[in-house]
């Protein structure tokens, strides 16, 4: 029991790899920020690469903004960028926001090695996600 239970992230029920279906996503061109198509059909990736695509999309989607996504999908970085918060507060909150955005995915078991860098109204985040398929490194300029 925590002294501040209302600010702790909820426990995520981690399922075993055999209980989850194979993770699938549409392949993503990270440079152009568009899906990859071949012969009129989206290219499907699975496993570790699919989790990497999911991470990319979650880091580039503002939570609560789009009705198509559930309220558990996306991130809350916008509340930090461009605000008059102290640099210390921003650098403390950004890793928490990052973990909350990613750990909701049942294929991700941990988020480690987080680095954040604020430059004006830009946020640069990177780290590693431990998945049921292995480790995935991620980086995003927001």
Short précis:
This protein is of the alpha+beta class and 142 residues long.
How would you summarize the topology of this molecule?
Blueprint: E1 24-26, E2 28-29, E3 34-35, E4 37-38, E5 41-42, E6 44-46, H1 48-59, H2 87-102, E7 108-119, E8 122-131, E9 134-141
The poorly predicted ranges are none
What's the helical proportion of residues?
Answer: 10-25%
Order of the strands making up the biggest sheet: 7-8-9
Cα(first) to Cα(last) distance is: 35 Å
Radius of gyration: 16 Å
Q: Could you tell me the mean pLDDT?
A: 85
One letter per element, helices H and strands E, the order comes to EEEEEEHHEEE
Largest sheet: 3 strands, antiparallel
Question: Which word captures the global form?
Answer: globular
What's the total count of β strands? 9
Strand content: 25-35%
Helix count from the secondary structure assignment: 2
Secondary-structure class: alpha+beta
How would you describe the overall organization of this protein?
This protein has 142 residues and is an alpha+beta fold. It contains two helices and nine strands, in the order E-E-E-E-E-E-H-H-E-E-E. The chain has helices at residues 48-59, 87-102; strands spanning 24-26, 28-29, 34-35, 37-38, 41-42, 44-46, 108-119, 122-131, 134-141. The strands form four sheets. Strands 7-8-9 form a three-stranded antiparallel sheet, covered by helices on one side. Strands 1-6 form a two-stranded antiparallel sheet. The chain is globular and about 50 Å long. The model has no long low-confidence stretch (mean pLDDT 85).
């Amino acid at each position: 029991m925590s002294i501040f239970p209302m600010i702790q992230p909820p426990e995520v029920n981690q399922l075993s790899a055999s209980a989850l279906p194979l993770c699938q996503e549409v392949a993503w061109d990270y440079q152009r920020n568009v899906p990859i198509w071949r012969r009129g059909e989206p290219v499907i990736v699975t496993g570790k690469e699919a989790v990497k695509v999911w991470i990319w999309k979650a880091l580039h989607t503002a939570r609560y903004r789009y009705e198509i996504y559930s309220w558990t999908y996306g991130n809350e970085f916008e509340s930090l960028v461009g605000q008059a918060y102290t640099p210390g507060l921003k650098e403390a909150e950004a890793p928490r926001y990052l973990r909350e955005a990613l750990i909701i995915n049942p294929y991700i078991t941990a988020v480690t090695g987080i680095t954040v860098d604020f430059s004006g109204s830009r946020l640069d985040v990177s780290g590693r996600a431990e998945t049921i398929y292995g480790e995935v490194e991620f980086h995003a300029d927001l």
